[in-house]
Specification:
Blueprint: H1 3-31, E1 32-35, E2 38-41, H2 43-58, H3 60-78, H4 82-94, H5 98-106, H6 111-118, H7 141-150, E3 155-164, H8 166-178, E4 183-188, H9 195-209, E5 213-219, H10 228-236, E6 240-244, E7 264-267, E8 271-275, E9 292-293, E10 295-301, H11 303-319, H12 331-336, H13 338-343, E11 346-354, H14 362-372, E12 377-381, E13 385-386, H15 388-400, E14 404-410, H16 416-423, H17 426-431, E15 435-439, E16 443-444, E17 448-451, E18 455-459, E19 463-464, H18 465-470, E20 473-478, H19 481-495, E21 498-500, H20 503-507, H21 511-523
Parallel strand pairs: 4-5, 5-6, 9-16, 12-14, 13-19, 14-15
Antiparallel strand pairs: 1-2, 3-10, 3-11, 4-7, 7-8, 8-10, 11-20, 12-17, 15-21, 17-18, 18-20
Helix pairs in contact: 3-4, 4-5, 7-14, 14-15, 16-21
Length: 527
């Protein structure tokens, strides 16, 4: 609204309050009285309060039922995940009072309804303006769809280095931090004040000491155990630290659902990193789950500024700041590095972001496009398998059509309900011919999908409804034969540390496991 309009509304509101002042003073005289002991209440006030409570007592169930009906209508009109809708409706039916309270505490934000109604696709998301050649429509069909629903550009000049596990990833990040000259921007879901956190923190402080602008963004709930003293030590060294959507008593706030699950490192606009690892010693294989299998990617080229834009948007949301001139601009990379950019190989990449602010759930659409259009293979690696009906149907349909569909998930569990919810989806996949592999060496945390010869996706988004529909995520979609072959080779190496499930073995599992799976599947709509 225009500022003049706001001032007019404010003036009208003040005038309205001024007109009510005589009535307010009259109510004060009727309800309150000043005595030598201080402010007191009149009998009229006591009588009025008693009448209100008696009325509420007599009509409590009527009010609750009406309120539940209103909330049920809101849930019904959300029109998102049907499983989630049914679960909330059952909660309202069987828990008429507690169900209402539960929905108000952890249910979806009512404001999201207004945002969805106001959504209008931007002109730049139109199909006619996509940068994909018409004669290569088959190769870049998924890219065209991602551009149409998220505006993700096709970035041609890039260099992609696949980093396997923490022992390759963290040394590469540390090397880049030591070489930083202008700025370091880091964003992680989990930052821990342990040995690895201290090591990265020391490098950040060293960089800040030599004049490098350092910003660190971490998720408030994911990094709930991060010590305040650790953050203060960084801030005292000149590092700007922010938590994403801080929540007091997060278990009682619905905002705890909207978490930033992204992992982004951008250094001087020339080098970028993203993938599944967080900053903690368990991601080096030193936690209770033992060996940690994960994947990160080091980027150079046109994809780095696009990754940087995601960080800057998250930073502005968290800090309330506007990006300032200086370290945020990419002129050093684009102009000063023109010759270097020309030397980069032709390697098409799209950087896609999604979250509760993404109406189309772009990464989910990308996964669906990859799996449903696969002709030879679709190999999926994810720590959790709660795909929702669309992706589930895509995997089953592709497998029944003769596509080699493989799914790799961990044998070990890190979250009770996520683990059993994932296992509940295994049987229909096996029956349709999908090959399911249980990783046994440790815990596999990689989030990757590869299809046919030339399309691979890697990033932060799990194959579960929380990552696909709720969390803020980022994912790379890479259209390159060599990179896809590298992911396929790694998948086959990981298969050596797996056991493949068979339908006969799965049917013989104990009844208690089936009960837990059914419970996990019911809860999976809220995971």
């Amino acid at each position: 609204m225009h500022k003049i309009g706001r001032w007019i509304l404010l003036a009208l509101f003040v005038a309205f309050l001024a007109g009510l002042m005589p009535t307010i003073f009259e109510w004060c005289d009727r309800f309150f009285v000043f005595t030598e002991e201080g402010l007191g209440v009149t009998r009229h006030f006591t009588h009025t309060v008693d009448s209100v409570f008696l009325t509420l007592k007599d009509y409590a169930w009527h009010i609750t039922i009406i309120y539940a009906a209103v909330i049920a209508f809101v849930i019904f009109m959300e029109g998102q995940n049907p499983d989630r809708t049914i679960l909330w409706m059952l909660a309202l039916i069987f828990l008429p009072v507690f169900g209402v309270v539960l929905y108000l505490v952890i249910g979806p934000d009512f404001r999201s309804l207004r945002k969805r109604r106001l959504f209008r696709p931007s002109k730049r998301y139109g199909f006619d303006d996509t940068p994909f050649p018409k004669d290569m429509e088959e190769q870049f069909f998924i890219g065209r769809m991602l551009h149409a629903c998220s505006g993700a550009e096709l970035l041609m000049r890039n260099r992609v280095e696949i980093l396997i596990n923490g022992d390759k990833t963290f040394p590469a990040i540390e090397k880049a931090l030591r070489e930083a000259k202008n700025y370091i921007h880091m964003e992680f879901f989990i930052v821990r004040s342990d040995e690895l956190g201290a090591r990265i923190g020391a490098l950040l402080k060293e960089a800040a000491g030599r004049g490098v602008k350092v910003r660190l963004l971490y998720d408030a709930v994911g990094s709930w155990s991060l010590k305040r003293s650790f953050v203060k030590d960084l801030e005292d060294a000149g590092i700007d630290c922010r938590s994403f959507m801080p929540v007091a008593l997060p278990i009682f706030r619905r905002q705890m659902n909207f978490r930033n699950h992204r992992k982004i490192v951008v250094i001087d606009g020339a080098v970028g990193f993203t993938g599944g690892l967080n900053l903690g010693t368990e991601y080096e294989g030193k936690g209770p789950l033992g060996f940690w299998r994960d994947t990160f990617v080091r980027l150079e080229g046109e994809a780095v500024p696009e990754l940087h834009k995601i960080f800057l948007n998250d930073w502005c949301v968290s800090s309330g700041e506007e990006p300032r001139e200086g370290c945020e601009c990419e002129r050093d990379f684009y102009d000063g590095g023109a010759e270097g950019r020309g030397a980069l190989p032709v390697l098409p990449v799209q950087v896609v972001a999604s979250g509760v602010d993404s109406v189309w759930h772009s990464i989910a659409k990308g996964y669906y496009g990859m799996i449903s259009r696969a002709r030879e293979r679709a190999w999926i690696t994810s720590p959790y398998l709660v795909p929702g009906p669309e992706l589930m149907n895509a995997m089953i349909a592709s497998s029944l059509s003769g596509v080699d569909v493989r799914v790799m998930i961990p044998e070990k569990k890190d979250h009770f309900l996520s683990f059993w919810g994932s296992r509940s989806y295994i049987e229909p996949l096996l029956r349709s011919g999908v090959r399911v592999f249980m990783y046994q060496k440790g815990f596999i945390h990689t989030k990757s999908v590869l299809t046919d010869c030339c399309c691979a996706s890697v990033g932060t988004c799990n194959m579960d409804v929380r990552s696909l529909d709720i969390n803020f995520e980022n994912q790379l979609f890479i259209y390159d034969r060599k990179i896809t072959a590298s992911f396929a080779e790694q998948f086959e190496r990981d298969m050596e540390d797996c056991r493949e499930l068979t339908i006969s073995e799965w049917e013989e599992r104990p009844v208690w496991q089936k009960v837990l799976e059914s419970f996990g599947r019911l809860y999976s709509a809220q995971i």
